[in-house]
Every structure is written in structure tokens, then in C-alpha cells.
Design goal:
Layout lengths: L2 H10 L22 H4 L2 H18 L8 E6 L5 H13 L1 H6 E6 L3 H11 L6 E5 L6 E8 L8 E6 L2 E9 L5 E4 L5 E3 L1 E6 L5 H9 L8 E4 L1 H13 E13 L1 H4 L10 E4 L2 E2 L19 E3 L2 E2 H10 L3 E7 H10 L11 H7 L4 H4 E8 L17
Parallel strand pairs: 1-2, 1-4, 2-3, 4-11, 11-15
Antiparallel strand pairs: 5-6, 5-10, 6-9, 7-8, 11-17, 12-13, 12-14, 16-17
Helix pairs in contact: 3-4, 8-10
Length: 374
């Protein structure tokens, strides 16, 4: 099977998938930290940007009757809860107009959302595994695209090969995963690409991989972006994730690929060995992730009629929101804020892509400090 098919099973299988079997995988007791785990400040700052986007939509020719807020990859709803509580306290007109839609693949996480939302759960309209058919407002995807199943390729002298996952017949079984049954031992192999779309993806970017270079091509992330852009009638999409422009992602600095695993707050790195990389071990028992190609994501959105408003480091995005919010100025010395903007940490590894549809290219508060990508 392809690496994408393996990731889909390892992460999202309804019974054995890593994300499917628990309502939450992040935080101190989980395997990795996200900006949401730092505390409610991240959501409170995002609410500043969402409130401004609400005002932009309200002053357009067609005024909103309701305002859809969609979070894709919502988990148990903690980020949405932080945003809604901030809106209720600071922007009651936004809060009263808001219709919340949570999109989450894990049934366990969806079941936990009502308790997480608690008193702000009154704004929840839908909780499902797919985006609403049509919406007007703001869509947020925080650390979603990096966890979508991706293909892995490797360039050889004779041309592009794809990496496949297969059972290791010499060692048919490995240890139990998280107390589950003993699982087949796995290894990788190489063969011609499963689809011409992989080479076409690189050709569209004018990328030439050198022999020996390994890379991830996430066709599903691009299709997700196209689909989201089509469903949005008017409004904004905010994507926050770690990744790079294509020219940096597909370069010598990432020649080993970026596919890796996180377990107990440790990354094993992209490779353990040529046939049995670390990400292949313990399927269903660890997170799998690969860096996002923001060039292709942006191009997919623009092909569906969206406009790129900004692409910048999370550091500068949050500094712009803080500088335009007097009631949050005290947060500048807050430990939460320092963690969110820390160079070399969440602040610089996480990028923010803001896209708009039907509203032109407004000057947003999140872009007021500096538009810079490191």
C-alpha cells in the first residue's frame, strides 16, 4: 500500500487509528503540544481576528444574517470554546450572530465536544466529520493539513519512485501497540508511482528532485483546500500549520523528507533505516505528520477564486493582533504569549495563511505588525 494509505489506516481507522481511539492526543499527558495546549490566550487572540473579519463581512454590499465559524480538525472543541468565550465577553454582536460548526474525524473527540463547550455550546450548529455543504464566514484549520495522509516519493537515477508499505515476511510480527493485539511487522519498498499526479505535482512547481532525495507529496491536502474554497460562499479561511514554500520544502535542506512521528513529546526524526523508518513502527500508537507545502495549498485556493491576504509566521500574526487589542496588552509579559511567539518554537515553525473570498484584500489586524516568513 502507499504511505498515504498506511497513514490513513494508522491515524484514522475507526477502531485502531491513533486519532480515532482517543478524544485528545495533545497536552502534557499526550504526545505533543499545540498552540491550544499553551492556554486560552491563543483562542482569545484568534477571536480578535475573527471579530474583524465579521465586521468586514458586515460592511460589504451583502450583510450577513448569520456568521458561520467552522473549525476543521476541531478535536474536542477546546480552541472553539476559547474563541467563543472571548467573543461573548468582548463582541456580543459577533457571539449572537455566530453559528459554530465543528469538523472532526474522531467520533470520540466529537462526543467530548459538548462538555468542552459547556455554556457556549448554545452556538454549536453541527458536529460532523465533513465540512458543511456551504457556508459564509470564517474557516479555521489549526494543525490539520500536516496530519492528512501523504504520499512519499524518492528520486533515483532512472526516475521518480514511490515508497510503499508492505509486511516483512522475514519477521511477520512485532510487539503489541498500546495494549492491543500483536501486529504485523512492516517495511518499505520502492516501485513506480501509484499515480501520474505525483510527477505532475512536481512539474507544476518546476521542482527537480536530485537522486537520493526523499519527499512527501500531499495530494489530499490540496484537494481539501480546493473543496473548502468551493464550499465557502464569502469570507475567510485561516490555515495555521508548520511547513514551507515549495522551493524550501523540496530542497537539499529537507532531502530526507519530513515525515516523522511524535510519541510522548519526542520526535523520532524522519528515518530510522531505509527499510524500516521510525514512522512505520507501532501503527495506531503514535502520531504521524509531514510538513505542509504552502505554495501548492495557496495555488489550489486561488484556482477556486480565493485571494491570498497574507502568509506569515505565527509570531508576527499574533503580535499584530496583540498590538491592536488594548485589553490584551498585559499579555505581552504572559508566559502563554511568550511560548506562542518563541523563535524556533511555535512562533516561527508555525505559519499562518489567510485567504479571502468575495471581500477583496482587506488590511487585517493580524497582518499589521509585520508580514514575514522565516
Amino acid at each position: 500500500m502507499t504511505v498515504a494509505a498506511f497513514m490513513d489506516l494508522a491515524l484514522y481507522d475507526p477502531e485502531l487509528g491513533y486519532y480515532a481511539r482517543a478524544a485528545r492526543r495533545t497536552g502534557r499527558a499526550g504526545d505533543f503540544f499545540t498552540s491550544v495546549d499553551v492556554g486560552p490566550l491563543f483562542g482569545e487572540l484568534l477571536e480578535v481576528q475573527i471579530a474583524e473579519m465579521f465586521r468586514v463581512l458586515q460592511t460589504s454590499d451583502s450583510r450577513l444574517q448569520t456568521f458561520d465559524l467552522i473549525e476543521a480538525g476541531a478535536g474536542d472543541g477546546r480552541l472553539a470554546a476559547d474563541i467563543l468565550r472571548a467573543a461573548r465577553a468582548r463582541n456580543p454582536s459577533l457571539y449572537e450572530s455566530l453559528r459554530l460548526h465543528l469538523v472532526e474525524a474522531s467520533a470520540a473527540a466529537r462526543a467530548a465536544q459538548p462538555a468542552t463547550l459547556a455554556e457556549v455550546g448554545e452556538r454549536l450548529v453541527s458536529s460532523a466529520s465533513a465540512l458543511p455543504e456551504s457556508f459564509e464566514g470564517v474557516l479555521i484549520a489549526n494543525e490539520l493539513l500536516d496530519a492528512l495522509p501523504t504520499h512519499q516519493v524518492v528520486m533515483r537515477e532512472e526516475g521518480l519512485h514511490e515508497v510503499y508499505v508492505q509486511a516483512n515476511v522475514a519477521r511477520p510480527f512485532q510487539g503489541r501497540g498500546e495494549g492491543g493485539p500483536e501486529r504485523p511487522a512492516l517495511r518499505t519498498s520502492e516501485a513506480p508511482p501509484s499515480t501520474p499526479a505525483l510527477q505532475q505535482y512536481l512539474d507544476a512547481l518546476d521542482i527537480q528532485l536530485e537522486p537520493g532525495w526523499r519527499a512527501e507529496i500531499n495530494l489530499l491536502a490540496v484537494e481539501w483546500m480546493r473543496d473548502a474554497a468551493r464550499r465557502l460562499r464569502r469570507g475567510f479561511i485561516i490555515i495555521i500549520d508548520y511547513g514551507h514554500e515549495a522551493r524550501d520544502l523540496y530542497s537539499a535542506s529537507h532531502a530526507g523528507g519530513t515525515l516523522t512521528t511524535f510519541a510522548v513529546h519526542r520526535s523520532a526524526g524522519p528515518e530510522r533505516g531505509p527499510a524500516a523508518p521510525a514512522w512505520l513502527q507501532h501503527p495506531g500508537g503514535q502520531d504521524l505528520t509531514a510538513h505542509v507545502d504552502f505554495t501548492s495549498i495557496r495555488a489550489a485556493a486561488e484556482a477556486e477564486g480565493m485571494t491570498t491576504v497574507a502568509f506569515l509566521d505565527q509570531t508576527y500574526f499574533l503580535l499584530g493582533l496583540l498590538s491592536s487589542s488594548p485589553d490584551l496588552q498585559s499579555a505581552i509579559s504572559n508566559r502563554q504569549f511568550k511560548v506562542l511567539v518563541m523563535p524556533g518554537g511555535l512562533g516561527s515553525t508555525h505559519k499562518v495563511l489567510i485567504l479571502a473570498k468575495g471581500v477583496g484584500t482587506p488590511a487585517l489586524q493580524g497582518c499589521s505588525f509585520k508580514v514575514r516568513v522565516t
